[in-house]
Amino acid sequence: MGMIETATEKDRVVSVHPWPADQGDGYARDARREEFDRLVISSDCELLCSIPVLLRRAFAGMLLGKGQVASIAEKVREHRAAVVFVDHQLSPVQQRNLEKAWDAKVVDRTGLILEIFAARAHTREGVLQVELASLKYQISRLVRSWTHLERQRGGFGFMGGPGERQIELDRRMIRTRIKSVEKDLAQVRRMRATQRAGRRRKEIPTVALVGYTNAGKSTLFNRLTEADVRAADQLFATLDPTLRMVELKEGGRLMLSDTVGFVQDLPHELVDAFRATLEEVVEADLILHVRDAYDPEVVMHGEVVNDTLAQLGLDHAEAPPVVEVWNKADLVPRVASHIVPEVAGSRVALSALDGRGVPELLDLLRKWLELDMEEMELAIPASDGRMLAYCHSHGHVLAQSMDGETVRVTVRMSAKDTVPLEPFKREGA
Q: Which domains are present in the chain?
């Protein structure tokens, strides 16, 4: 990354939406177009024009036909656009040819998402992961630096800008840097593994929030943990993973993890780079799949999330159980909860914004914890305050009474936590 310059104006941009003819049209096309334009706006650009293009066949040289390229060139000149975003993956050759034809910087879908991630990552781990993805993207392109995002917030240089310097990035140097970043991320992965092992020793189960971007995961995370994680009506508002402890009212505790949102055609470079973070999902004891019940594309979004989880190896028999959380039920009253005794496969309808349905989710989490719980009848000497405190801190005390110098306790707790209490089990209980 280079020096960050101060930008006083947003880049003037145009978006282009190639839509394959064999995919039909209708709402899916319009939803995809709207989502991509929101991504463009999320990169802090001034979107001047959104151009749909029917892609009857993909041309090797410029993806689009000559007539389509010429028509878009007129729009670019008309709006004096500095950047053209294309909602499609472009080869390096296609990108260079389109830049010449349109006399503007051209950024494909992968480049745009990487720009946004570069601007939003704040922790060392997040920055490393975005840099790794960016380097892998750059190695075939040797792209220019000094983007509008780099001038403002430290982007990685896919978009370029007025007066930029042309810097030829040697591929050997990029590969060297890739190895260095991968080494640093391996250290992060080991650290996370150590932290997870520590939680296991303390018998703290982990629940991971996953979902399509902007489904409301961070809002729900804040509601459940009373935390202050950034929650915005914006794609990819959360990049850096966050963990918080949740204490349930009737005993029990768990670690809740908020993760990056998924999106259609998430670049494989990012899936690979964010694997260290997403291991929190792979290693979770339970997954809450947060879905936007108000979005007409909720079914497709669910498929995207499930496909991405499969890429992470969560399509096997030992994968964590999944509970679906249909958020924004305040906007879709007809969405109802469906709870099953084994918890996995349940659906909870709620509104993370106003809190309706959240107690039902907390109750379900408590029931999930209790699946591995056992009830014990204990007789503990009144002088043994340490064991009495253990009962209250590790389980749910159902009843407690004095019997001379003995305290009779009925407690429910995880089977793994009952070992220290075995000597105090009441006979016949």
A: 12-153 (3.40.50.11060), 204-370 (3.40.50.300), 373-424 (no CATH)
